[in-house]
Amino acid sequence: MSTIQNSIDVIAKQGMLPLYFNADESKSITILRTLYNSGIRAVEYTSRGPEALSNFKKMIEVRNAEMPGMLLGIGTIKNLAQAETYYLTGADFFISPGFVPEIASFLISKEVLYAPGCMTPTEIIAAENAGVKFIKLFPGNILGPDFMSGIKDVFPNLIFMPTGGVDTTKQSIETWFNAGVSAVGMGSKLISKEVMEYGAYDTIEKETKRVLDLIEAIRG
């Protein structure tokens, strides 16, 4: 099995992809440990601040030492230079807010999963023609499950995951899965700024376990 397919399988089996950024290195690591202890095996750390790269390097070190089977990906990658930097750092998969052909070409040649954000059929077609297998529907709150329902038959060979506006409720998650997605991206609805600020890691653990159980029940 290719490393790209393995990353897709881990995220799809999990049914959700937690994503977060925190400027504080120790908080970033503690959240990662908390997610791992909750049963998570793939996490997206978003490159949304000057501290992201140094934090990510340390997170990779800790992951390698403590968390067997954990895939650690990097998000908010917008240009080739960023992709090359994080590839050398050891990121397992890459996620963008939009489709960047140069990033797709580089990562696919390295057998690394690239999931670009798309919000039109034209963008999805361009990504598919570039060899992309996994599409992030972004922003999910703007597109909605009806968009997924409307396009799924046109793209039978692609895996879809909405990010942005997906709630942790049964109704929200179930509607997306019924529309045809294979996973849901979970950011601030799961790991809020308040929860991170106050270090309420037990809340993150409980909510993560609850959402994983919810997804398992929805899938039947």
From TrEMBL:
<dbReference type="InterPro" id="IPR000887">
    <property type="entry name" value="Aldlse_KDPG_KHG"/>
</dbReference>
<dbReference type="InterPro" id="IPR013785">
    <property type="entry name" value="Aldolase_TIM"/>
</dbReference>
<comment type="similarity">
    <text>Belongs to the KHG/KDPG aldolase family.</text>
</comment>
<dbReference type="Pfam" id="PF01081">
    <property type="entry name" value="Aldolase"/>
</dbReference>
<keyword id="KW-0119">Carbohydrate metabolism</keyword>
<keyword id="KW-0456">Lyase</keyword>
<protein>
    <submittedName>
        <fullName>Bifunctional 4-hydroxy-2-oxoglutarate aldolase/2-dehydro-3-deoxy-phosphogluconate aldolase</fullName>
    </submittedName>
</protein>
<comment type="subunit">
    <text>Homotrimer.</text>
</comment>
<comment type="pathway">
    <text>Carbohydrate acid metabolism.</text>
</comment>
